[in-house]
Amino acid sequence: QDYDNKIKELKKFIDKNLEVADLKINLYITACNKHCLSPYPSYIIEESSVGVESLALINDFIPPVGLLQHYLKKTRKFTPNEHVINVLHWLLITFTEPSFAKTDSNNYQNILSKVEHVSNIKLPTHMFVLKYKRLNEGLWISERSNLETKFAFLPINMEYAHSVVHLGVHPQIFTEGKHGLGIYLTTDINCCLQSIAAQWVWGKSMLGIETQIMLLVEFINHSSVITYMENKAICKEQNSSEDGNNSGMFYFLPTHKFVRVRYIMLYVKTPSTLKPKSSKTIKDLENLHKRTILYLTITLTAIILAKRVRFASMAKNIFSNIASLPLIKQCLS
């Protein structure tokens, strides 16, 4: 019954938030692969080296979101296994704050105009807005008091995005720079992009498989915030506008309490070929996913057997015999 309820909740969420689901899974899997997952589903799998390896195996069975949506409709007998459902329910349903929403590309320019002295504008491929509950937002307003706030860009490595969007900007991502250890922000988009390398992320994502991520944050302009015109900690090389001067502003924040993430901006270097609304794509994905699961099952069987036999060559022979079965060969072809 619990499994069926989770299926219903996931179906409802994904039907309304397909691209949001893709993004959250993308950030989660990237964090898993880099061994820096926080928050962690400790009530599902223990937080240990063995637990992390087990979680990685479960992640391999997560299908692309378009195919997942197709499976959750229960139009076919094939459905994701219970472990996959538990992880996805934890990730997509349990975390109710902040909520994510895809932003229409027609609004990108207006959103970027929130940044005072924004320079070297380059529109993102995708943008998502983060929304907080009234109580949480009230605490932020209380922290702000009567001080003004400003907007700026925060470059971040993809593997830390999962923790930052769910836990807020935290000291673990502080940068050492000319003003010490803290948070360095900029209003120069190009400079921000130069400071972070494009990363290969979840290969099943429809948003893109090689991506740079940038956060548009709102920060309290406290008296301890330092404003200046150049920052080697962020910018690899000084950017120039048409008149030859760097027009971007830079800010140093000594504490994470002054910052709130408002938007996630994705710059895709290598786009995905997945198109979830195409029936042909769904069929191709279904065949590919079944072959992947079968291959993983065979591989795991071989690993388990390898621990029980005396010689590794015997396990190799067992694997070869299984893979040569007519049914298996047909599925893997």
Automatic annotation (TrEMBL):
Keywords: Glycosyltransferase, NAD, Nucleotidyltransferase, Transferase. Residues 13-92 form the PARP16 N-terminal domain. GO terms for molecular function: glycosyltransferase activity; nucleotidyltransferase activity. Belongs to the ARTD/PARP family. This is Putative poly adp-ribose polymerase 16.
